[in-house]
Specification:
Number of helices: 4
Distance between the termini: 41 Å
Shape: globular
Largest sheet: 6 strands, mixed
Structural class: alpha+beta
């Protein structure tokens, strides 16, 4: 890989990481309009509970979920890494702690066009058992 490609890859991953962090922020989680801009039209999630979420159910319930209140528990992410799987497709992996509960997370982001930008296409959270 030449240096330009490495730089492009790094900037793409940095942009996707920034959007992932936005989705964990109370300001975005509590706003349907802001969340709407970050979720792909075909978004699905398998949550830490095992429940499967589609885009509409996520947008409808996100404001009432953990991590959405300024004065409540917040997601603390660690070990976030990203890989460009193909042009317009990035896979992120990381762990979070929310109110003492750890989860391993995996997100796939895709960019359909410049106007919509990077949006989360798929997310999965797996609880980490206490040691």
């Amino acid at each position: 890989m030449d240096m330009d490609t490495d730089t492009d890859t790094d900037s793409v991953i940095a942009e996707v990481v920034e959007r992932e962090l936005q989705l964990m922020s109370p300001a975005v989680r509590s706003s349907r309009a802001l969340s709407d801009q970050l979720l792909d039209p075909e978004f699905t999630e398998v949550g830490a509970s095992g429940r499967r979420w589609d885009r509409e159910s996520t947008l409808s319930e996100l404001a009432g979920m953990d991590g959405a209140a300024d004065d409540g528990p917040r997601y603390v992410p660690t070990g976030m890494t990203g890989t460009v799987l193909a042009p317009g497709i990035v896979h992120l992996t990381f762990e979070t702690v929310l109110d003492g509960t750890r989860a391993r997370r995996s997100s796939i982001w895709r960019k359909l066009d410049e106007e919509s930008g990077w949006r989360m296409y798929y997310h999965q959270a797996t609880p980490v058992p206490e040691a």
